[in-house]
Design brief:
The protein is mostly helical. It has a single domain (10-419), classed as Growth Hormone, Chain: A (Up-down Bundle), CATH 1.20.1250. The chain contains 18 helices and no strands. Helix 6 (102-131) packs antiparallel against helix 16 (357-364). The longest helix has 31 residues, at 322-352.
Length: 424
């Protein structure tokens, strides 16, 4: 008798939807924001530092809204929340396109951040943790890879639009915002579900656990540290500062198009280089997600930080070569962007388990918001006053070294939690 064909677990459809939602929110919206800065600042006669203050405003709003966002996602229908979130986030880009002064960016930074809390910070890690009890690292990696793939497609189109369209950067902002809304809203409504239990399923990989016993199921699925215990540990504060610094490092990606153009290259080449960056994100997400599952999150972080340092050194000392710029930018995306999207959630699971993962991750993610308040405009002001991004790149290099130390301390803190019997 023929064996019945095994049905694809719905978790994989959830992952496809997340790849589209998070990929467009990060790869098309967030990562492209740097492409608009040179044109907008020139046309409106705004200092780069003053314009990029909108990133600080967005980060402050994110910091305030993150704990609230976690509660909203837990309480209300996830589809309704995400539809509103993407309209707020992508709609803000439409608003930027109609802005005639820096105040437009400051005002629309608020809905941009509120929507982005859900689409770029919370929903991916939380739903992966809900739906996948196996291959978590691979799932997170694929979400990061989707940002790379979609960004690699979007960046050259946006760069070309800015360079050639009648209304330049304004057309790019409006077209991008509307396109993301049109694609994401139907995806959310048709595919997403909050949890496998909501449609009568177990998470992917949980069946292997329940085949042993119900007691083992509870132990394996919910094992970890509570938020109350985690917040008292050195592991948590090391993780918090890792989030803060890796976001500060990743924030420089917003300025890479400006850095490239400051070297004398045009917006079209900057867009192409950012396509290389997104291809790096795509490949890095797959590679780092695989490495997390094979060698652990700590060792993967070490590899990523070292490779990122190499990319920074290349940008500093071999910037007269177009090929090197593209390769260095791609390597930066390969490592740094995925450290935020793939390694940070994986580190949280490795250090504290899944018992109160959503609460711990969203609390530690405040480091992401705090970093944006300072780092994004700081890089802009460094350029305004030094007339060069070189000092900023040296700062990035130092932060990469500090992150290696922080991750080492974090896992020493985990040993203390285990020794004290807090993992249960």
């Amino acid at each position: 008798m023929a064996t019945a064909k095994k049905k694809i677990h719905y978790a994989w459809w959830i992952l496809v939807a997340l790849c589209l939602i998070v990929g467009l929110s990060k790869g098309a919206l967030n990562t492209s924001s740097g492409l608009f800065i040179p044109g907008a600042t020139k046309d409106l006669d705004i200092l780069t530092g003053n314009l990029t203050l909108y990133f600080s405003i967005a980060s402050i709003v994110t910091m305030i809204f993150l704990p609230i966002g976690g509660k909203i996602l837990a309480k209300y229908d996830i589809r309704t929340v995400l539809v509103i979130a993407i309209i707020l986030q992508a709609g803000s880009y439409v608003g930027f396109g109609f802005s005639s002064s820096v105040w437009g960016w400051y005002i629309f930074a608020v809905p941009l951040a509120v929507g982005g809390v859900f689409t770029t910070v919370i929903v991916g890690p939380v739903l992966v943790n809900q739906w996948f009890k196996k291959k978590n690292g691979m799932a997170l990696g694929l979400i990061g890879a989707s940002g790379g793939l979609l960004g690699a497609i979007a960046q050259p189109i946006i760069g070309y639009t800015i360079a050639t369209a009648e209304h330049t950067w304004r057309t790019g902002y409006i077209g991008l915002g509307l396109a993301v809304i049109i694609i994401v809203v139907p995806t959310v409504l048709l595919v997403l579900r909050k949890s496998p239990q909501a449609i009568g399923l177990l998470p992917y990989g949980a069946q292997e656990i329940t085949d042993v016993s119900d007691e083992t199921k509870t132990e394996e699925v919910d094992k970890g540290v509570t938020l109350a215990i985690a917040r008292k540990s050195s592991a948590f504060y090391s993780l918090f500062f890792f989030f803060l610094l890796i976001t500060s490092i990743a924030s420089f990606a917003i300025h890479i198009p400006s850095y490239i153009q400051s070297l004398g290259y045009d917006a079209i080449f900057a867009g192409n280089a950012m396509a290389g960056y997104m291809i790096g994100v795509l490949l890095g997400a797959l590679a780092l997600g695989y490495l997390v599952d094979k060698i652990g999150s700590r060792n993967t972080v070490y590899v990523a930080m070292i490779l990122a340092a190499i990319s920074v050194l290349a940008l500093l000392f071999i910037s007269d070569s177009k090929i090197v710029i593209v390769l260095a930018t791609a390597l930066y995306g390969f490592t740094v962007s995925n450290s935020v999207g793939t390694l940070a959630p994986a580190l949280t699971t490795s250090l504290f388990g899944s018992r109160e993962y959503a609460q711990i991750y969203s609390t530690a993610s405040l480091g992401l918001a705090i970093a944006g308040i300072v780092a994004l405009p700081a890089y802009g002001y460094i350029y305004d006053f030094a007339k060069s991004y070189t000092p900023a790149l040296y700062i990035v290099l130092v932060l990469l070294i500090i992150n290696i130390v922080l991750v080492t301390f974090a896992f020493e803190g985990k040993k203390k939690l285990l020794k004290q019997g807090h993992w249960n």
